[in-house]
Amino acid sequence: MDEEYDVIVLGTGLKECILSGLMSVSGKKVLHMDRNKYYGGESASITPLEDLFKRFEKDGDASQYGRGRDWNVDLIPKFLMAKGQLVQLLLHTGCTRYLEFKVIEGSYVYKKGGKIHKVPADEKEAITTSLMGLFEKRHFRNYLMYIHKFDENDPKTHDGVDATKTTAEELYKKFSLDKNTQDFVGHAVSLHRNDDYIKQPVLDQIRKNKLYYDSLATYGKSPYLYPLYGLGELPQGFARLSAIYGGVYMLDKPCDEIVYEDGKVVGVKSEGETAKCKMVICDPSYVPGKVKKVGQVVRAICLLDHPIPNTKDALSCQIIIPQNQVNRKNDIYVCCVSYTHQVAVKGYFIALVATTVETDNPEKELDHGLNLLGQIREKFVSVSDLYEPTDTGENSRVFVSSSYDATTHFETTCLDVLDIFKRATGEDFDFSKVKTQEEADE
Predict the structure, then answer these.
(1) pLDDT digits over 158-191, tens only?
(2) Which of 52, 121, 418, 432 registers the highest number of CB atoms within 10 A of its CB?
(3) Where are the alpha helices (DSSP H) in 365-404?
(4) How far is CA 241 from CA 31, 71, 95, 194, 391, in A?
């Protein structure tokens, strides 16, 4: 440990592993340490099933659910957008050679009254959906056609809209979309977590809509992908990427102290040795004095022996419950994977319901989601604190990731990763710098 590194990364959560890979790809000398013996941190996959029962201190016989080793249960399951930045990175770096993905079968949205509806995938579904009335379908179809033809670089496609000034609210008004339609477009398509976006320039909203429908067009069923054997494979994929570019990994290695001189990090002390470095990247648990609590997330991992009702027996799906539909400030997220993803014994399903905590009875806040699942065989509930860094890290050179939010997709995770990369290096990550796997092998 007497070498000097450009970057020391602490923790093997997915964000830290991605950043380790990006830094290595960018030519930085990286040392990656974790106090745990396993990859994934708080976003780990748990196997065998007996370990999930132990982790949640839950009584019960796990063996009734078949061989424990056939289960891989993500503590924080999230789906990948088929055309999103994480998939771009996986494809370009060749991490996909270690991973196999399956398309999520359905994307649904909840409407007042307790019904779920498939998010319309194209103009045809927009016309046949029971989510909207006849006139509203026409308005939505026109909105959809506008989004599809919109080209940022071609003002002729903008129809007089200045997307850098016009707000999302004004664009909705232009196409006469009612509140219910705005809800599902804003939350189930654009994946906004609340309604703050309504008053902001619409360009971001248009980009998010295009990403959703471009991702959807890739495979047809839904815009989402999920890796076989669970998300635990992702951190390891990026760890291998880092190693290809010279990154050094040490699991089961405690961090005793982050060492500073004149307020700037100079190294990390572990078991009596100090590794020197120019910067540290870590999750909030390594620097409690540099983060603030900004809320909590409540999650319920549920084992089912049947598909979620009203999804046409889908073997996997995502359901978003927009805040307004259930009189909340934050959306509720439901996702489901199954034995087809090699994460459960044949015939079984793993569903997650999650939201940002708003009351002093967090589990009760999940009811709208839990009620959609039908009979639940086992339920594992957790409440996690949400932390954010208290400064940008540019002075101390310690860059801290934010906790994982309640969303069941990776879009917010990617934004945090790319933001940290920019703060740490002073530049946006250049995807063209990444050699393909074949080039690296040569």
Answers:
(1) 999 999 999 999 999 999 999 999 999 999 999 9
(2) 52
(3) 367-370
(4) 13, 26, 7, 35, 29
pTM here?
0.92
* Residues 268 and 299 grouped into a single domain: no
Read off the pLDDT of residues 305-363 as tens digits, 9 standing for 90 and up.
999 999 999 999 999 999 999 999 999 999 999 999 999 999 999 999 999 999 999 99
Distance CA 310, CA 289 (A): 47
User: Could you tell me if 306 and 181 lie in one domain?
Assistant: no
Distance CA 367, CA 440 (A): 49
Are 136 and 213 part of one and the same domain? yes
In this structure, is the dihedral angle defined by the CA atoms of residues 340, 342, 345 and 349, taken in order, positive or negative?
Answer: negative
* Cis bond upstream, residue 389 (ω within 30): no
Encode pLDDT of 17-39 as tens digits.
999 988 998 899 999 999 988 88
The burial of 135, by beta-carbon neighbours within 10 Å (0-12 exposed, 13-18 middle, 19 or more buried), is given as: exposed
Domain that holds residue 174: 122-219
What lies within 8 Å, CB to CB, of 223 at 6+ separation is 81, 82, 83, 107, 211, 212, 213, 215, 216
Same domain membership, residue 299 and residue 285: no
**Domain endpoint, select from 167, 198, 219:** 219
Check if the beta carbon of residue 30 is closer than 8 Å to that of residue 9. yes
Q: Which amino acid is at 251?
A: L
Q: How far apart are CA 22 and CA 238, in angstroms?
A: 9
pLDDT (average), residues 96-119: 90
**Residues 322 and 206 placed together within one structural domain of the fold:** no
Strand-pair partners of 10: 33, 282
Helices (H), 95-202: 123-128, 134-149, 168-174, 179-184
CB 177 within 8 A of CB 143: yes
Question: Quick one: which H or E segment has residue 341?
Answer: none
